Amino acid sequence: MVRAKTWTLRKHFEGFPQDSDFELKEQELPEPKDGEVLLEAVFLSVDPYMRPYSKVRMKEGDVMIGSQVAKVLESKDPRFPVGSYVVSNCGWRTHSICTGEQLEALLSNWPENIPKSLALGTVGMPGLTALYGLTEVCEMKPGDVVLVNAAAGAVGSVVGQIAKIKGCKAVGCAGSDSKVAYLKEMGFDEAFNYKTVSSLEEALKKASPEGYDCFFENVGGQFSTVALEQMKPFGRIAVCGCISVYNDVTPQTGPYVHPQLLFKQLRMEGFLVYRWKHKNEESLKQLMTWVKEGKLKYREHITAGFANMPRAFMGMLKGENTGKAIVKA
Amino acid sequence: MVRAKTWTLRKHFEGFPQDSDFELKEQELPEPKDGEVLLEAVFLSVDPYMRPYSKVRMKEGDVMIGSQVAKVLESKDPRFPVGSYVVSNCGWRTHSICTGEQLEALLSNWPENIPKSLALGTVGMPGLTALYGLTEVCEMKPGDVVLVNAAAGAVGSVVGQIAKIKGCKAVGCAGSDSKVAYLKEMGFDEAFNYKTVSSLEEALKKASPEGYDCFFENVGGQFSTVALEQMKPFGRIAVCGCISVYNDVTPQTGPYVHPQLLFKQLRMEGFLVYRWKHKNEESLKQLMTWVKEGKLKYREHITAGFANMPRAFMGMLKGENTGKAIVKA
After folding, report:
1. CA–CA distance, B183 with B179 (Å, rounded to integer)
2. Mean pLDDT, consecutive 10-residue segments, chain B of 329 residues?
3. Quick one: closest CA in A to B236, which residue?
4. What is the full DSSP assignment across B210-230?
5. Do residues A13 and A56 make contact, with C-beta atoms less than 8 angstroms apart?
6. Mutate: best of A139, A256, A268, partner B, most B CBs <10 A
7. A268 lies within 8 A of chain B by CB
8. Cβ pair B6, B22 in contact under 8 A
9. A242-274 per-position pLDDT tens digit
10. Which end of chain A is more exposed for a tag (fewer CB within 10 A), N or C?
């Protein structure tokens, strides 16, 4: 018999999440039945989407949603032998019972020297998000100028590097000088700290005087208003996230986007990574190849201890992480 | 020697246009040279785009931009014989000298019983705008629910009817009860007066409880915020115009569109009709065929007299027209 710890949503977030919105619980898990496996979390993910999804996908008392890399402790599904590693969407839990259908095996031949936590980042959902946003939504072509904000985050850092791999100019912004240094290290052509520039408009103009073909949008809000003005005709905006408005109690407002969209014939599209699930296997292999070749660098911001998950989540929402925010169980 | 009257932009509009922003001038025209023709305006168009384009395409003193159906009075271009009719983009002028390159001949075999002014409306730029917005931008499929605002206008009235021709449900809104009656006459499935409904949200829900696949946007502003909330997942928004903000001195603001776009994976795209110029010949024939078959009904709001062009233009911006606003010279 295994005792599992879980983090539940005690109270729906109002504004920025607080410690008291979370509750740590324990439960005894039964033995796995036929077709089930018992998992132990190794790495857990905290991601921006959890904030808006808490409103629509969860009720108070539910276990917090999320994915993890887990080790199989017991197995009644031959596809997932004891000792193997899987990615599971079972939420903020130290241990869980899942059916095989809920699991993805880790990419086969995962190299020894590459941390398995990358299956939650560069070679996982955030990496796929970057890839699909650029290729499927922005329809990025060689020579395009690509703008990405929250560029030192799990998704943004991959966006800029894929743009470079595909022959584009990558411009990134982030919220601290050390993040900006990291962007340059990763090969971004231009990078700046949006919190310290005197004018975002001027900074964007300086980084690309001719404007932007693609804008990978992670932030929303005021940033988007200024960036839209800098798009070239027929520019494409992939709306991947809008972290600046997730904690709004009353929605922030800004100028309507219509005139910008209309006269420059811009296309702005929201997307969720699951739309291209049928391509994931091939895409994950591609991401792993780039990692192994050194073309895709990564950093992780690791918080130790399952007990610290809320703190890691809130820190990520504040932008404390450079690279993917991970909790090591 | 012909004396031409022209309407010029005396002063850039500030807010809603005023009589004093326009100035009527006269000028003597020279004889047409080789390759040129002398035109006399028969019908002139007033369109919403003239308001925003005045800011970016005109300087004070310029002749107001716009298209007209004109008769060839003298010709030194054998493609446009004396007595034939053309569509010219020469602006608000009673007479003009143009080169053949600036002209489009009227569709050949134009039926006697169909007014030539339709070349400025249903079988012209506004008709093409409706067609391309639905087929190219919205990628409308049979069975889709299509929403259009300013639905009794030159473009909107064609949008709803093409939606019906292509097997879709058409929902339209307009700003008066007589316009709503006209929408029903044209075969819209649902139509309402957005000025008198107690709640736009409720009216949209009642017209299509399951939401909207396509939204042909002519208005922008607050309407768009409410309409976006009613889009189905993977909905498409074709931004054709935003007449509600054209006269803003300081831009109106509303909630950022990102959360709606993101979580429903909506696509919002601005477009200008000229993008599909290569398809115009075929498309105009299609529009004319529908008109002749009685599938595409039309109405025109005709103002008599070139002297009244500013009044016709301002009236159109206020929504005084049902169907295409035309000035008969």
Report:
1. 6
2. 95 97 97 96 97 94 97 96 96 96 90 96 98 98 98 98 98 97 97 97 98 98 97 98 94 96 98 97 97 97 98 97 97
3. A269
4. T-EEEEEESS-THHHHHHHTT
5. no
6. A256
7. yes
8. no
9. 999 999 999 999 999 999 999 999 999 999 999
10. N
